[in-house]
From TrEMBL:
Transmembrane helix recorded as keyword: yes
Protein's name according to its UniProt entry: Uracil permease
Recorded GO CC terms: eisosome; plasma membrane
A GO molecular function held by the record: uracil:monoatomic cation symporter activity
Species this protein is from: Henningerozyma blattae (strain ATCC 34711 / CBS 6284 / DSM 70876 / NBRC 10599 / NRRL Y-10934 / UCD 77-7) (Yeast)
CDD domains: SLC-NCS1sbd_NRT1-like
Transmembrane segments: 161-182, 257-276, 283-304, 324-345, 366-395, 415-435, 456-474, 486-505, 532-552, 572-596
Gene designation: TBLA0G02830
Lyase listed as a keyword: no
Topology relative to the membrane: Multi-pass membrane protein
Leader sequence residues: none
Biological classification of the source: Eukaryota, Fungi, Dikarya, Ascomycota, Saccharomycotina
Compartments (UniProt record): Membrane
Alphabetic keyword roster: Membrane, Transmembrane, Transmembrane helix
The family this protein is said to belong to: Belongs to the purine-cytosine permease (2.A.39) family.
Length: 650
């Protein structure tokens, strides 16, 4: 271990950039002589400097504190900062949300900050049961039931639909586990891990993709919750409440009453966006405790009202046969996968907190298909019971709950509908926060940490969601399926590139310090100052392109028509996007090899080089990397050979 010698360092005022001259290769380090110096070493690390640029042979650095880009001059005391103008005060105290980035360039804050650094041991607390508990809380929501009922709308009977769901969510479990590996091994989030495959700066593109999708889906999930909010209001104020409120909305797909319910849920959700992520876990605890009882209670109530009988055949007047049946079955499978498109991509955001190497492996591989299939079965059986009672193939099982209220407006029914609707609204709130607002906030804070934190990013997500007009996306099951497919074609292409790069090209090997470095020779700058991996760009478009004709035909129908084959290709949206981008990236990397791969021939050479990395001393290693002019020799063939001769069981 070593100590940094600070004899020549000076502290400046907060309005200045703190600088220090550091000798190259850390010649100013002094060895520790006693074990008592360990605590001193930790204190030294807190005020150590991060190298930012080199000029005239001198290394210019900016001080940071506690691994979060905190300037060291904050340690000098609680001195009152003086500003020369109101604008300067407003900029520093209001606009700049991460005070640790004051005096730090935008590029530096983008590369490394407290949210982006690898997760150290004390924060890696998720065991296998935590992941199981997380998916238990996630699987119970109205959207999952609507995805399940989509197969019934396509003409499948209940058991055919359930088989398709099992297949779909089994593939989802596999994709989630694959995407989780980089987070589990190297303890980094998606915005950082994406730098390995797309390039340090081009990783902004997949992050923006996910931000856009999170905003759209936040709006959709909030609109889905308008139905249970409306049922709660009708349970209190009467069935004619919607008729008593004049409709001046002017849209064929919604009414003033429905928009009012949507806005009520939006307003109630807003305070939860202001709660720090580590405290919002209590909401998920309540959700996980209440929602299963409400879901199974709803199922029992529906079957009892149907006198123990449900419609076992197809619930549609159109019963597909032959090729039509096959494509209906495939579309039911793909709808499950498309529903998980964002969760597959952002799997490292959760797996980076894995306590053990395989904490995120078997638990997710088992829990995702089992829990979501059981939850989907509830939706299928409720829909089948509703068809038995009312002769209508309801797309959303919550509509069956509304029918209960219409046909029996008694005290007991009103209380039951209100309580179940309340719990379902709570389920939607939890899902919307975990899957959408937090994802959007995390990504925006990674893009612009100086001005946006997770809270501000979540608020931005909610505000823009009001402009999405989700009632047009959710006006029918076919439009809902189209929205899922559109959602999938972009994110599946990103997931395909990331998987190909990690599992085939790099064989699980990541040079962690290079993910945070811009110098010449940085593996993930890909030999250009823009930090763009053009292979990833081409492969991404190869994944998107086959789905575009069908996407245009689906969105533009009936004004725009495309061939039947183009539409069938579009029905395979997630598979096509993932497979085409995966294969295209491997081919491009075979003919145009990338730096940093531990194998010479990615198709013929064998080997797996993933490691469980300890990152307690990462910041010191990273600063040592930044002190180098050229990283070309940072890893050489001898090191690769050592990797090849090492057997990694993880």
């Amino acid at each position: 271990m070593h100590r940094i010698n600070h004899k020549n360092s000076t502290t400046t005022t907060r309005t200045q950039t703190s600088n220090i001259e550091v000798l190259n290769n850390y010649n100013s380090f002094e060895p520790y002589n006693t074990n008592d110096d360990i605590s001193s070493f930790e204190n030294d690390l807190e005020i150590a400097s991060k190298v930012s640029s080199k000029n005239n042979g001198k290394v210019t650095t900016t001080f940071y504190e506690d691994s979060s880009l905190e300037e060291v001059d904050s340690l000098s005391g609680n001195e009152k900062t003086e500003y020369s103008s109101r604008w300067e005060w407003f900029y520093n105290e209001v606009l700049v949300v991460d005070k640790s980035t004051k005096g730090v360039s935008f590029t530096q804050s983008f590369l490394y900050n407290n949210d982006l650094k690898p997760v150290e041991t004390k924060r890696r607390v998720w065991s296998w049961y935590n992941f199981a508990y997380f998916w238990l809380a996630e699987c119970f929501n109205i959207n999952t039931w609507q995805v399940a009922a989509t197969g019934l709308q396509l003409g499948l009977n209940w058991w055919q639909c359930w088989i398709a769901i099992w297949i779909g969510y089994t593939f989802v479990g596999i994709f989630v586990v694959l995407a989780s590996r980089v987070g589990s091994a190297y303890h980094v989030s998606f915005p950082v891990s994406a730098r390995a495959s797309f390039g340090i700066f081009f990783s902004i593109w997949p992050i923006i993709n996910r931000v856009v999708m999170a905003v759209v889906w936040y709006s959709v999930q909030a609109w889905i919750c308008a139905t249970p909010v409306g049922l709660m209001l009708k349970s209190i104020f009467g069935l004619d409440l919607e008729e008593r409120i004049p409709n001046h909305f002017g849209s064929p797909n919604t009414t003033t009453f429905e928009y009012m319910c949507f806005f009520i849920f939006w307003v109630v959700s807003f305070p939860f966006l202001l709660v720090p992520p580590h405290k919002i876990r209590h909401l998920f605890t309540v959700k996980a405790a209440l929602v299963p009882f409400a879901a199974f209670g709803f199922l029992i109530w529906a079957i009892r009202k149907a006198h123990g009988t449900i419609a076992l055949g197809a619930l549609s007047t159109f019963i597909p046969h032959g090729s039509a049946f096959s494509w209906a079955f495939v579309r039911a499978i793909i709808s499950c996968m498309a529903n998980f498109a964002t969760m597959v991509v952002n799997a490292p955001d959760f797996s980076r907190f894995s306590k053990h190497p395989n904490s995120a492996l078997w638990s997710q591989l088992v829990c995702v298909p089992v829990l979501f299939s059981i939850t989907s079965l509830i939706g299928i059986l409720v829909t089948a019971a509703g068809f038995q009672l009312y002769g209508i193939n309801y797309w959303s099982p919550v509509d069956v709950l509304g029918k209960f209220l219409e046909t029996s407006f008694t005290k007991g029914t009103r209380a039951g509908v209100f309580l179940i609707s309340f719990v379902f609204a709570l389920a939607q709130l939890g899902t919307n926060i975990s899957a959408n607002s937090l994802s959007c906030g995390t990504d925006l804070s990674a893009l612009c940490p100086k001005f946006i934190n997770i809270r501000r990013g979540s608020v931005f997500c909610a505000l823009i969601a009001l402009c999405i007009c989700p009632w047009n996306l959710m006006s029918s099951s076919s439009k809902f399926t189209s929205a899922l497919s559109a959602y999938a074609i972009f994110l599946s292409s990103i997931a395909g590139v990331v998987a190909a790069d990690y599992f085939v090209v790099r064989r699980g090997y990541i040079k962690l310090t290079h993910l945070y470095s811009l110098q010449k020779g940085s593996i993930y700058m890909y030999g250009n100052r823009f930090g763009i991996n053009w292979r990833a760009l081409v492969a991404y478009f190869c994944g998107v392109a086959p789905n575009l004709p069908g996407f245009i035909g689906d969105v533009g129908a009936p004004a725009v028509t495309v061939s039947a084959n183009a539409m069938k290709l579009y029905y395979l949206s997630y598979w096509m996007g993932y497979a085409f981008s995966f294969i295209a990236y491997i081919i491009l990397c075979y003919f145009f090899p990338v730096a940093g791969s531990p194998v010479k021939n990615i198709l013929k050479d064998k080997g797996w080089f993933q490691q469980w990395v300890e990152v307690e001393d990462f910041e010191r290693e990273w600063r040592a990397t930044l002190a180098k002019d050229d990283l070309s020799n940072d890893i050489n063939e001898q090191e690769y050979e050592e990797f090849r001769q090492t057997k990694f069981n993880f």
